[in-house]
Amino acid sequence: MVVIGVDPHKASHTATALDAITQHTQETVRVEPSLREYRRLLRWGTRFAERQWAVENAHGLGKHLAQWLLARGETVVDVPSTATARVRELSRGGRRKNDALDAAAAASVAALHGDAAPVAVDGPATVLAMLDERRTNLTQQRTRTVNQLHAVLRELLPGGVATDLTAEQAATAVGRIRPASPVERARRGLARELIADIRALDARLHANKQRMQNMVAESDSSLPEITGVGPVVAARLLGRTARAARFPTAAAFAAYCGVAPIEIASGDKARHRLSRHGDRKLNNALHTIALTQVRIRTSRGRSYYDSKITQGKTHSEAMRCLKRRLADHVWRTMITDEQRVAAGPGGHLGASLSSSAAGSTPNTDSSDQSLPGPTRAHHTEPVLTG
C-alpha cells in the first residue's frame, strides 16, 4: 500500500509516495496547478497499484485537486496542516521544512491513521455552505449600508431617525425633506442611493433565503421541525456539518460546535469553563435556536430553561445548558435523517454512514423529555438596525 501525500500551493503541488508499512519515501513529483499537470500527476500515481491520496488542507488550497481526484475514482483523505507540523517536529529532521517534507508528512499522517479524514464529493451540503457564506456577506454589506444611511439622515433630520427603520419608512422620511442648500441636496441624493442599495440587498437576501428553503426541502431534513430552526439555520447546520455521522457521539458534535464545557480543574473540586473554541457559526446557529425556544413560553426548551433558573442558575448559565442539550438533539435528528436516507432507495444528501455513529444513536430516555419539541418557529422580516 502506497500513500501519496500532496502539499498544495497556489503556484505548485508537490506529491510524495510513501510506503505505508516501512514509512520510506519512494518518489517525489512536482506539478503546476493546471488540468494538464493534474493528468500527469494522476498518470504518475497509477504506477502504484494500491494507493491513497493524502492532501494537506483538502478543504482549502487542495480542494480543487482533491475533488478532481475523487471525480476520477481515487481515494482521498484530508490531512490538517497542524498534523503535518507535528510530524515534522517529531521527525529526525527537526524543524526543517520544504514542500517534499510536507508532502511526506501528510502521507505519514494518513498511513498511521492519525488525524486524516476521508474527503467526500461535493454535493448539496456544499451548496448550502456556499449560500450561507453568501448570506453572511450580504448581511454584513447591508449592515454597513444601513449605518451609512443613519449617518446621512442624522445630518438631514433633527435627531436622525429611529433605529427600527424599514426601507419604505426611510424613503418616506427622505421624501419629506426640502433641501435649502446644495449640500443638503447632495445628502438627500446620497440617502436615496443608500435606500436603493438596501432594497436591492433585501431582494437578494430574500432570494437567498428562498434558495436555502428549497434546498432544505429537497434534502428531506427533519431539522425544520425543531422550534427555532428556519431555512437559514437549517442550511447552516446542514452546510457546515456536511455529515453528522462523522462525529462518533453527540458529545463530539457539541465539542465541535463549542458548546461543551471544558474541565479546567480535576480532583474532588472539578471546575469547568465555557469553551471558546469550535465552529463559531454552528455555535451561533445553536444560540439562535436556544434564544427562540426561550422566547416561546410553550416550547419544551423554555421549560428546560425555567427548570435551570429554578435551580439557581443565571440566565447565561441556563442558556449554556440549553445550547448543550440542543446540540445533542440536533445531532440525533441529523443522524436519524442520514440513517433513513441510507436505508431508502436513494437520497438527497448523498452521505453514506461510514462512521461508527451510524449504529450508535442514543435511545431516547426520560431526560429527553426536556428537549425541544417539533414545533416550527415564526420568522419576521428584517428591519433597518444600525
From TrEMBL:
It comes from the Bacteria. Residues 341-386 are annotated as: Disordered. Residues 361-372 have a biased composition (Polar residues). Residues 350-360 have a biased composition (Low complexity). InterPro entries: Transp_IS110-like_N, Transpos_IS110, Transposase_20. Pfam families: DEDD_Tnp_IS110, Transposase_20. GO terms for biological process: DNA transposition. Residues 223-305 form the Transposase IS116/IS110/IS902 C-terminal domain. Residues 4-158 form the Transposase IS110-like N-terminal domain. GO terms for molecular function: DNA binding; transposase activity. NCBIfam families: transpos_IS110 (NF033542). PANTHER family: TRANSPOSASE FOR INSERTION SEQUENCE ELEMENT IS1111A (PTHR33055), TRANSPOSASE FOR INSERTION SEQUENCE ELEMENT IS1547 (PTHR33055:SF16). This is Transposase. It comes from Haloechinothrix alba.
